[in-house]
Design a protein that fits this description.
heterodimer; A: 432 residues; alpha+beta; 4 domains; 6-stranded mixed beta sheet; 20 helices; 6 strands; B: 122 residues; alpha/beta; 20% strand
């Protein structure tokens, strides 16, 4: 079991302020030898003493007692695993984050960028292999170049080309050059970066960026008369696809806000213990509408915070709201044991389960898969699945009820999941 | 009597250049641009050499080659394969299908002439 590093954090913060142990102990009203024991994690600390130390150090007490969040730690563990030759001291990670929070944030940021670039490269590589336009364009360009190369060779080799043939070859050269220029231009257009998110087969990041910038509660859209296009116009330059995608997403938000106005909904939430299924029945709306309402609540200490993940049958991420404690995939490849993937097997049947991660967090999850409207006869259904999840459930789900819920031991991603015997494992554990 | 070369290629400007180069060497050149009935064309003409593009409309050069090797009348016919793909596995696939020689586009004129002569003199 990991030991508490509250003392280590206190020591680092004290040193950062150039305070001596004696001076801080005097300010807090304890002996310097006792503070020394605390700083070496040999004595537990909580309550008034912790609050007094935090106050004298000018920091929040929780930052001393809780340390770094799990997502931050996982990110740095992944960074260490990616470069094993560096032999980073993974067992001292919390201490590192406590002592050098700025450097830790920097590595975290680099790791995020590296992951995003790797995912983009994989998507691009996959695209190059399977993109029919690209294959056709390359074939055409090779044919153009072959014709030009061979014809130019004939014209430059000697004077034995009769005038009529010379004229024909010059015309051919001109035609092939024009075709080559056209193909090259089409190819550049095809790879226009503004369209890349759409063409990579990944969800546009414009929606992600919009919610990251504006938060997930959009007060303007709670007023049903607001025009979503005003918000979209304020989102800066967007490709046609991104603009349409954002309009669709925000219109869906507005429909949700109309169906479930915030204040009466919150009243019912308190009475129905934030149970989405009971809320859906109570309000006569689809379960996914309640999922969205719970995802888009104002930030308030008294309200549980819900994350959200919506995926399609290929695992592609259609919408996500992260909680800092759970790293959601950007493109795909979450843990296949997550209930959001499992519920594809029983569309329409809501699933409630506690999801326990290897890092010790527990999430109350609600998931459901639903069939998409079909516009053709005779094909199997196309499904999407949604999951909301929260760590803030102890307050509204009684202990007895929690104990009766399905408990799922899951991972985040196989590469960082220590459940080595997992039957769903699809890649090796790289931190072992 | 000059030797007959059948050029099965759907790009007319490549055909024009190759036709000129081969005729200048004293060869009789025929061409055909469709994969669908290429085998029939070969059977009718019985050329001394086939220059066969891999990517053709109607039927791939590789399928045409397999037909030729399955037919006792054409199983020994020299076939020079042309392709835009130059990877080792493509070369191996062409050779295992019975190609006499394999060239990657774009090619140099002197190189294809050298290979044509080598195949005709076998």
């Amino acid at each position: 079991m990991a030991r508490s590093l509250t003392g280590t954090r206190i020591r680092e913060r004290r040193r950062g302020k150039n305070l001596s142990q004696t001076e801080l102990a005097r300010q807090v009203g304890i002996s310097s030898s006792y503070l020394n024991l605390i700083e070496h994690n040999r004595r537990g600390i909580a309550g008034k003493t912790l609050l007094a130390i935090a106050e004298n150090l000018g920091v929040d007490a929780r930052s001393l007692s809780e340390g770094a969040d799990r997502a931050h730690i996982m990110q740095l563990r992944e960074a260490a695993a990616n470069v094993p030759s560096a032999e980073a001291e993974v067992d001292r990670l919390e201490e590192f984050i406590g002592r050098f929070p700025g450097w830790a944030r920097l590595i975290d940021e680099f790791q995020s960028q590296s992951k995003f670039q790797n995912e983009t490269l994989l998507a691009l590589s996959d695209r190059l292999k399977h993109d029919p336009f690209f294959a056709e364009a390359i074939h055409m360009m090779v044919s153009n170049i072959t014709a030009i190369h061979s014809t130019a060779g004939i014209l430059s080799e000697g004077d034995d080309v009769p005038p009529d043939m010379r004229r024909m070859f010059l015309d051919n050269l001109s035609a092939e050059s024009a075709r080559l220029a056209k193909t090259a231009s089409d190819l550049i257009g095809h790879f226009d970066t503004s369209e890349q998110a759409e063409q990579l087969g990944t969800r546009s990041s414009a929606v992600d960026q919009f919610f990251e910038t504006n938060g997930f509660y959009l007060e303007k859209l709670e007023n049903s008369d607001a025009d979503v296009r005003d918000l979209v116009e304020g989102a800066g330059p967007l490709s046609d696809f991104d603009r349409a995608d954002l309009v669709t997403t925000l219109t869906r938000y507005q429909d949700m806000a109309r169906a479930l106005p915030l204040d009466p909904f919150l009243d019912r939430c308190r009475e129905l213990a934030f149970d989405p299924l009971r809320l859906a029945l109570d309000r006569s709306v689809p379960l996914e509408t309640v999922f969205r309402r719970l995802t888009h609540l104002p930030r308030n200490e008294l309200l549980p915070e819900f994350g959200f993940l919506k995926v399609d049958g290929s695992g592609g991420v259609l919408f996500r709201k992260q909680l800092t404690t759970l790293n959601l995939p950007k493109f795909s490849s979450g843990c296949p044991l997550w209930p959001v993937y499992r519920c594809f097997g029983q569309p329409g049947q809501p699933v409630r389960a506690i999801m326990n991660t290897p890092t010790g967090e527990s999430f109350l999850t609600f998931s459901v898969a639903k069939q998409q409207p079909m516009n053709e006869f005779g094909l199997p259904p196309s499904l999407t699945a949604s999951m909301i999840f929260t760590t803030d459930f102890a307050a509204f789900v009684p202990r007895a009820e929690r104990q009766g819920l399905a408990q799922l031991d899951v991972g985040l991603h196989c590469t960082v999941c220590p459940r080595l015997e997992c039957s769903a494992r699809r890649s090796g554990y790289i931190l072992g | 009597m000059s030797k007959k070369v059948l050029l099965i290629e759907d790009e007319p400007h490549i055909v024009a250049a190759l036709r000129f180069l081969l005729q200048r060497e004293g060869l009789t050149v025929f061409d055909h641009g469709d994969g669908q009935d290429a085998t029939q064309k070969i059977s009718e003409l019985i050329p001394d050499l086939v220059i066969l593009d891999v990517m053709l409309p109607g039927r791939s050069g590789m399928q045409i080659l397999q037909d030729l090797r399955d037919d006792k009348h054409t199983q020994d016919l020299p076939v020079l394969m042309l392709t835009a793909k130059g990877q080792k596995k493509d070369r191996e696939a062409a050779e295992s299908a019975g190609a006499s020689m394999f060239m990657t586009k774009p090619f140099a004129n002197e190189e294809i002439l050298k290979n044509v002569k080598a195949l005709l003199n076998r």
